[in-house]
C-alpha cells in the first residue's frame, strides 16, 4: 500500500514522506494498486485516534459530557482545557490523522483518471466515487471540529481543503471556498456512484455473499464502504450544517425512502426485536459503518473505562421510561468502594446471537440521523409524522410538536439519546449554537466548540 505520512505544520500534516515504499507510477499500474490504497484509507479510519475510538465513543463523547471518567485526560477534555498538554496532543492527533486519510485518497485521485483503462467493469467509477466521498467525509469532520460555529461566521481563512499530494504547503482557505470544494467532491462522488454502486442493484443481504460481490470479495458488504446512500447521508449532514434545509431534506428523504430491487426498504429503524436478537447497535440502520476487529476487547466494552452516572442519564430519560435506548442499552454496576451505582453502555456488546452484519460494527451514519435531519428541515406536520415512526420503533409514546422551538428542544435531546457513544451530540450542540450543554455549567460558545488548530498550522490564518 502507498505509504503517506504527514509532518510538522502544513509540512507536518499534508506532505508526502520522501521514503514512500513505492513510487506512485508503480503503485498505480494496475487496478489492484488503487484498491489497496482505498482499503488502506478505510483501515486508517478505523484507528483509535479516529473512528475506532476517539471520534465515535471516546474523546468526542467527553466533549459532549457523556462519560463520567476519572483519568486526567478525560477530566481535562470535559473541562474544555484545550491548552493542557495531553489534550493539545490529542486534538493535534485528530487533525493530523484526518489529513493522513485525505492524503491517502489524494494519491489515488491524482492518478485514477490517467489510468482508467486498467479497471474492470465499473470499478473505476466505484473506486473514484468512494475516494471522493472519503475525502469529503474527513474534510467535513475537520470543519466540524476546527471550523467556526455555523451560526457565527466571520471573514478570513479557516482550514486547508487539500486535493493534491505535494511538498508545497497547503494554505488555509475561506469558509466559502472550503465548503464549495467539499460540495464539489460530494457532487462528483454522487455522480460516480449513482449509476454504478451495487447497493442500488442488490440488497444488503445479497451483497454479503460472494456471488454478488465479485469472486475476489471487493464489492462485498457495501454498508462498510462509502456507498451511494452514504454519500446521500453525508450530503444531508453537510447541507444541514450549511443551513440549506431543502437540500438536506431531499437527501435525508432519499435514504429514508430507499428501496432495494425487491421493493424492500434498504434501511429500517431498530426495534425491541433487534435488541432481543443481540443487535443493540441497530445494524439494520447502518448506512455506513466500520468493522473494527475484536471490538469486544476495546475500551468501550470495558465497564471501568467509559461509564456514566444516574444523574447524567436522567438528563435524557425520565424515570420509568420504556425507551429501549435506556432500558436495553445500559448496564447498572455497583461500586463497593464508592457505595454508588454507575452505568456503562452495552450497544457495542458482542452478543453470541447477534447478526453477522452487526458484529464489530461502529456506525458512522445511521438511519435515525436521517429522520432527525428530515424532522428539522420540513414542516411541523412532517416532523410529527416522522417522529411518530421513531417513537414506535423505540417503544415510547409519540409526542406532538406545536412549534419549532418545541421541536428543537426535542431534537437536541434525541441527538444525545440516539447517538450516545457514537460521537454526534457535540456536533449538534455546535451546529445549533447551544449555550446549554447537558452535564456542565460551562456555557457553550466558540471557545468550547472550535478546537484550536495545531500551533504551527495557525500561523497561516489570515
TrEMBL record:
Protein origin, superkingdom: Bacteria
Xref: SUPFAM superfamilies: TPR-like (SSF48452)
Keyword Membrane attached: yes
Alphabetized Gene3D superfamilies for the sequence: 1.25.40.390, 1.25.40.900, 2.20.20.130
Record keywords, A-Z: Cell outer membrane, Membrane, Signal
One Gene Ontology CC term in the entry: cell outer membrane
Residue ranges annotated for the SusD-like N-terminal domain, each copy included: 12-153
All copies of domain RagB/SusD, residue ranges: 340-431
Subcellular location per the Swiss-Prot or TrEMBL entry: Cell outer membrane
Family of this protein: Belongs to the SusD family.
Protein's recorded name: RagB/SusD family nutrient uptake outer membrane protein
Native organism: Butyricimonas virosa
Taxonomic classification: Bacteria, Pseudomonadati, Bacteroidota, Bacteroidia, Bacteroidales
Amino acid at each position: 500500500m502507498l505509504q503517506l505520512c504527514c509532518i510538522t505544520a502544513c509540512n507536518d500534516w499534508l506532505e508526502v514522506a520522501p521514503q514512500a515504499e513505492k513510487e506512485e507510477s508503480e503503485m498505480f499500474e494496475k487496478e489492484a494498486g488503487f484498491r489497496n490504497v482505498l482499503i488502506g484509507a478505510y483501515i486508517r479510519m478505523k484507528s483509535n485516534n479516529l473512528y475506532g475510538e476517539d471520534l465515535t465513543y471516546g474523546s468526542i463523547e467527553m466533549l459532549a459530557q457523556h462519560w463520567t471518567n476519572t483519568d486526567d485526560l478525560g477530566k481535562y477534555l470535559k473541562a474544555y482545557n484545550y491548552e493542557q498538554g495531553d489534550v493539545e496532543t490529542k486534538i493535534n492527533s485528530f487533525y493530523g490523522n484526518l489529513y493522513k486519510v485525505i492524503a491517502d485518497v489524494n494519491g489515488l485521485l491524482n492518478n485514477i483518471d490517467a489510468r482508467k483503462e486498467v479497471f474492470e467493469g465499473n470499478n473505476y467509477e466505484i473506486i473514484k466515487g468512494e475516494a471522493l466521498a472519503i475525502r469529503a467525509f474527513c474534510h467535513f469532520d475537520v470543519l466540524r471540529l476546527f471550523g467556526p460555529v455555523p451560526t457565527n461566521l466571520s471573514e478570513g481563512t479557516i482550514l486547508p481543503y487539500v486535493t493534491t499530494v505535494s511538498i508545497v504547503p497547503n494554505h488555509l482557505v475561506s469558509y466559502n471556498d472550503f465548503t464549495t470544494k467539499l460540495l464539489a467532491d460530494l457532487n462528483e462522488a454522487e455522480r460516480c456512484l449513482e449509476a454504478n454502486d451495487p447497493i442500488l442493484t442488490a440488497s444488503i443481504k445479497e451483497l454479503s455473499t460472494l456471488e454478488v460481490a465479485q469472486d475476489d470479495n471487493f464489492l462485498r458488504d457495501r454498508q462498510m464502504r462509502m456507498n451511494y446512500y452514504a454519500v446521500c447521508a453525508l450530503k444531508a449532514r453537510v447541507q444541514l450544517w450549511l443551513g440549506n434545509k431543502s437540500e438536506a431534506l431531499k437527501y435525508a428523504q432519499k435514504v429514508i425512502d430507499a428501496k432495494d430491487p425487491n421493493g424492500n426498504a434498504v434501511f429500517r429503524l431498530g426495534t425491541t426485536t433487534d435488541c432481543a436478537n443481540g443487535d443493540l447497535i441497530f445494524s439494520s440502520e447502518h448506512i455506513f459503518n466500520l468493522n473494527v476487529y475484536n471490538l469486544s476487547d476495546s475500551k468501550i466494552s470495558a465497564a471501568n473505562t467509559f461509564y456514566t452516572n444516574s444523574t447524567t442519564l436522567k438528563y435524557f430519560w425520565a424515570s420509568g421510561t420504556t425507551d429501549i435506548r435506556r432500558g436495553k442499552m445500559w448496564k447498572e454496576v455497583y461500586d463497593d468502594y464508592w457505595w454508588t451505582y454507575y452505568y456503562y453502555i452495552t450497544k457495542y456488546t458482542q452478543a453470541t446471537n447477534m447478526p453477522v452484519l452487526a458484529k464489530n460494527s461502529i456506525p458512522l451514519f445511521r438511519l435515525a440521523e436521517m429522520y432527525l435531519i428530515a424532522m428539522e428541515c420540513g414542516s411541523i406536520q412532517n416532523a410529527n409524522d416522522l417522529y411518530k415512526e421513531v417513537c414506535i420503533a423505540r417503544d415510547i409514546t409519540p409526542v406532538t410538536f406545536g412549534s419549532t422551538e418545541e421541536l428543537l428542544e426535542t431534537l437536541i435531546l434525541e441527538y444525545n439519546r440516539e447517538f450516545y457513544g457514537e460521537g454526534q451530540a457535540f456536533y449538534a450542540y455546535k451546529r445549533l449554537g447551544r449555550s446549554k450543554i447537558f452535564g456542565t455549567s460551562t456555557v457553550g460558545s466558540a471557545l468550547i466548540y472550535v478546537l484550536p488548530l495545531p500551533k504551527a498550522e495557525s500561523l497561516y490564518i489570515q
